[in-house]
Design goal:
The chain is an alpha+beta fold. It is built from 3 helices and 3 strands. Strand 1 and strand 2 form a beta hairpin. Helix 2 packs antiparallel against helix 3. The two termini are 24 Å apart. The mean pLDDT is 88.
Length: 110
């Protein structure tokens, strides 16, 4: 099902998108740190009992990142950029451009 938002509904998404954007950023940062540690342990000639726990934590972060992306898809939105997080919002209405772009950290996202 395709969703198209009117202008006020698209504006109302901003707080939710900020929240999802923060979660994506925090989870990506944690996953990057876990992946670095996992890589270092795998290259080490010494066995580490820590590896299984780190791999499990990394899998959990990946799963939650997927859930965030799935939530955006359920809302009819799509990620079009990551630095900064940029999301396409399909819009409708008189004078509508058919899409609005929201960028994380920007005050006005039109």
């Amino acid at each position: 099902m395709k969703i198209a938002y009117d202008s006020s509904s698209a504006d109302a998404l901003a707080p939710l998108l900020e929240s999802i954007g923060r979660e994506l950023s925090e989870r990506r940062t944690r996953l990057d740190a876990l992946d670095l540690r996992i890589g270092a342990l795998r290259e080490s000639p010494f066995f580490s009992a820590e590896l299984a726990a780190l791999e499990s934590a990394a899998a959990a972060e990946r799963r939650e990142l997927r859930h965030c992306h799935e939530e955006l898809e359920r809302l009819g939105l799509s990620v079009v950029g990551t630095m900064p997080l940029t999301i396409r919002i399909p819009t409708r209405g008189p004078g509508s451009t058919k899409n609005r772009v929201w960028r994380q950290g920007q005050e006005s996202n039109n």
